[in-house]
Amino acid sequence: MRSLKMLKWNSQRVWIIYPEMIVFPILWFLSQTRAAPSLTAEQMDMGVDWLSKFGYLPPPDPVTGQLQTKEALTKAIKAMQRFGGLEETGVLDQATLGLMKTPRCSLPDLSASESPVGRRRRAVTPQNKWNKRHLSWRVRTFPKESALLGRDTVRALMYYALKVWSDIAPLNFHEVAGNEADIQIDFTKADHNDGYPFDGPGGTVAHAFFPGERFTAGDTHFDDDEAWTFRSPDSHGMDLFAVAVHEFGHAIGLAHTSAMESIMRPYYQGPVGDPLKYDLPYEDKVRVWQLYGKQQTRLRPH
C-alpha cells in the first residue's frame, strides 16, 4: 500500500509517494480555472498510478525519482480524457475517476516509446503480425469460479471469438490438444509472472500478447476472479465472448484505439450479442485488413 505525505517546496504542494521504499516526488495540484473536486489522497494516488500504468505518464525512475510538473500532469489527464472520449478538463473530475474505475484490458493505451502525453499510439507495424496464416489455439486452464460456464461452453466461445477475426482476414484458427499451441488461453489470478498482474474483481479483466518473437506471443489471459458469463444482463458479471473478441484482436496484432464504436476500445462495454451474428465494427475491419489483407471469398462451383 502506498503512503503519501504533503510538504511545502518552493511554495508548491508536493506529494511524496513511497512505493516500496522509493521516494517519488510529484507536484500535484488541487485547483484549476475550472472548479476541481475535493480529492482524497487515495484518489490522487490512484489517478497518478493509473496514468502511469496505462502509458499516459512515464514510470518513476527507481534510482533518482521522477519529478512531474503541474503541466505534465495536466497534459496526461487530458490525453487520457481524449482517448476515453471525455471532456478534456485536465483535472481528475468525477467522470474521469469513474472511467478509471471501469473494468478494462490490462494493456496500456500508449506505447512506452511515445511521448507520454498528447498523442495516440502509433499504428501497429508489420513486425507485430503473424508471419503464418494457420494458427493453433488451446484453452490450457478453465475458469474455476464460474458456475455458469462449463468447459465446452468456454471452448465454444473461444472458437467463435477467434472466428470473428478469421471471417474477415486470411487467418485460420484450429484447436489443438497439445502444449505447442500458438495461442495459449488461461484463466488465472493475481500475479501470474507475465508482467500484468490481475487485481481481483473489476479493474483489469484480461490481456493478450502481440505477435512476435517472445514465447508468450498470442497468449491470452483472463482474470479468474471475474464472474464470467454468457447471455446474461449487463449488470451480471463479465461477458466472456465480448472480452475474448477484444483480446484476440491483440493476439493478432491490434493495439487499443480511442474509437468509441471499436471492439478494441480498452474499456469493457458489456455484451455484444449473439456470437453467431456478431459483426465487427468497420473501424476494426479496416485495421485488420491493413495488417493481413482481406479474406478471399471462395465461390462455390455451379
Brief digest:
Zn(2+) 2 binds at residues 105, 246, 250, 256, 264. The chain has 302 residues and is of the alpha/beta class.
Q: Order of strands in the sheet with the most strands?
A: 4-8-9-7-5-6
CATH topology of the largest domain, what is it called?
Collagenase (Catalytic Domain)
| Element-level helix/strand string | EEEHHHEEHEEEEEEHH
> Multimeric state of these chains?
single chain
Number of helices: 6
CATH architecture of the largest domain: 3-Layer(aba) Sandwich
Query: Strand content of the residues, in percent?
Result: 15-25%
Name of the CATH superfamily of the largest domain: Collagenase (Catalytic Domain)
Spatial extent as radius of gyration: 21 Å
pLDDT < 50 stretches: 1-35, 115-126, 298-302
The end-to-end span amounts to: 68 Å
The profile of the biggest β sheet is:
6 strands, mixed
Number of domains: 2
Active site: 247
Organism: Alosa alosa (allis shad)
Binding site for Ca(2+) 1: 224, 226
Family: Belongs to the peptidase M10A family.
Which tags fit this structure?
302 residues; 2 domains; alpha/beta; 6-stranded mixed β-sheet; Collagenase (Catalytic Domain); disordered C terminus; disordered N terminus; 3-stranded antiparallel β-sheet; 6 helices; 11 strands
Describe the structure.
The chain has 302 residues and is of the alpha/beta class. It has 2 domains: 3-101, no CATH class; 126-292, Collagenase (Catalytic Domain) (3-Layer(aba) Sandwich), CATH 3.40.390.10. 25% of the residues lie in helices and 16% in strands. The protein has helices spanning 41-53, 70-84, 94-100, 151-166, 240-251, 282-292, and strands spanning 3-9, 12-18, 24-27, 104-105, 134-139, 172-175, 183-188, 204-208, 220-223, 228-229, 238-239. Strands 4-8-9-7-5-6 form a 6-stranded mixed beta sheet, with helices on one face. The longest helix has 16 residues, at 151-166.
